[in-house]
Amino acid sequence: MQIALSAKNKLVIVTDDYPAPAIDSPLFVHWKRVNDMVITWILNTVSDEISNSMNYMDNALNIWNELDERFSAITGHKFYETQRDLFKLEQENDSIEFYFHKLKGFWDEI
Questions:
Q1: What DSSP element (H or E) covers 15?
Q2: Which residue of 2, 38, 49, 103 has the fewest C-beta atoms within 10 A of its own C-beta?
Q3: 17 falls in which pLDDT band (50, 70, 90)?
Q4: What DSSP letter does each residue of 22-73 carry, written as one string?
Q5: Percentage of residues in the chain having pLDDT higher than 70
Q6: Same domain for 9 and 58?
Q7: How many separate domains does the chain show?
Q8: pLDDT tens digits, residue range 70-95?
Q9: CB distance 85 to 77 below 8 Å
Q10: Burial letters for 30-67: b for 16+ Cβ neighbours within 10 Å, e otherwise?
């Protein structure tokens, strides 16, 4: 999502490098349009269950921070699952490249 927003020059909305101007500012209309566009992109990217709980939010920065708070923390359960999956990983009939790709994915996740 960061790459997509950066490519569209909209990452500044969720990093707060372009904060909301005062409502009476002539720039507010433009900021509001970009903010709404970013909100739409974010909510269309996440699952329906997640987006439904955020439909009431009207600031892309707040939505971004909420998602970061929800999903950036690694729980002990997730860490255990990843370690377990790594321990059970076997090459079986996979090519060495595919096996290494799966192995590296677990390493990166941990």
A1: none
A2: 49
A3: very high
A4: PTTSTTHHHHHHHHHHHHHHHHHHS-HHHHHTTTT---HHHHHHHHHHHHSS
A5: 98
A6: yes
A7: 2
A8: 877 767 777 888 889 999 999 999 99
A9: no
A10: eeeebbeebbeebbeebeeebeeebeebeebbebbeeb
Token digits of residue 31:
């900021």
- Tokens 């490249």 belong to which residue? 97
Q: Do 26 and 57 have their domain in common?
A: yes
The Cα–Cα gap between 71 and 36 comes to 22
CB atoms within 10 A of CB 82: 17
- The rounded distance, in Å, linking the Cα atoms of 20 and 108 is 36
Q: Round to whole Å and give the CA distance between 46 and 67.
A: 10
Write down the residue that tokens 């799966």 correspond to. Answer: 102
Residue 59 — φ and ψ, nearest 5°? -135, 120
**Angle (nearest 5°) at CA 101 between 99 and 106:** 100
